[in-house]
């Protein structure tokens, strides 16, 4: 198994920080460093949010209210302590009082997170016309899935459309599809077993199957089983407590559902707009047809069974991992070739 401390993320929920250790880029390939692009453009934190809002406007959503810009927190205050964990708020649905709270850093990770948080905001805006009882995601995963959906459209083509890179750079970057997919998979695929095991641990605590005597060892048993990650730390520690969602008592199955649903949403929308290329190159930016499909689903809120909302967007009523496999198919084929003759996995 992999020792947890070498993965560049204290929970091992993303392995993106070891990308350069697991994939050797072609020296002639043109790779996109979004953090460098943000720095070169000298974007402010507010401007990063404006760019994310533009994505939703291109799909036909209504602009955010002026109160959003007046009342949201974009930068870490110097005069007081705040919880910097990014979050979206629907404080007064009747008056469309929508806000995000986030200590934005000028880097790729936060640029993507902003798109995610605005996904929550525009979901709120879409269903705030409904009675209070129905103001919510169709199920626990829908809110997270919609936020994550937009991140799949941050492609080289999209970055060209918004003026971050030239058309020539976008075309050159597409030729490095394995590098692009590897970087995404180290976050998007790696997180799936993590999101599953965390709530398995939480449910074990609630049912009493996990007791105070094995809080930490049970945590690592599950991580070894599902993630292939191990730790030398003893029962004297309480490693689960370092994850925000554990002390905050926030259910995590929503993220597991969202990771699967976002790819199904993405694939169905790409088919809707007639995209015929590799799935990872598809961006729904500036496609009003996709926007109509999305808004119709979001506007349902919790007024219908989640399967109805899911079917309205995807044409299907069940979750499936097929879209994930379709999205990463070029990477999977490359990995099978690279690992031919090797025994992969763990015990």
Structural write-up:
With about 350 residues, the chain is mainly α. It has a domain at about 35-40 and about 130-190 and about 255-335. It has helices spanning about 20, 35-40, 45-60, 65-70, 110-125, 140-150, 155-160, 165-175, 175-190, 190-205, 215-225, 255-270, 290-300, 305-315, 320-325, 330-340, and strands at about 1-5, 85-90, 95-100, 230. The strands form two sheets. The chain has a two-stranded parallel ribbon. Strand 2 (about 85-90) and strand 3 form a beta hairpin. Helix 10 runs antiparallel to helix 12 (about 255-270). The protein is globular.
Features:
16 helices; two-stranded antiparallel sheet; two-stranded parallel ribbon; 4% strand; 347 residues
SSE blueprint:
Blueprint: E1 2-3, H1 19-22, H2 34-40, H3 45-58, H4 66-71, E2 87-92, E3 97-101, H5 108-127, H6 142-151, H7 156-161, H8 167-174, H9 177-188, H10 191-207, H11 215-227, E4 229-230, H12 253-272, H13 288-298, H14 306-314, H15 322-327, H16 329-338
Parallel strand pairs: 1-4
Antiparallel strand pairs: 2-3
Helix pairs in contact: 3-5, 5-6, 6-12, 10-11, 10-12, 13-14
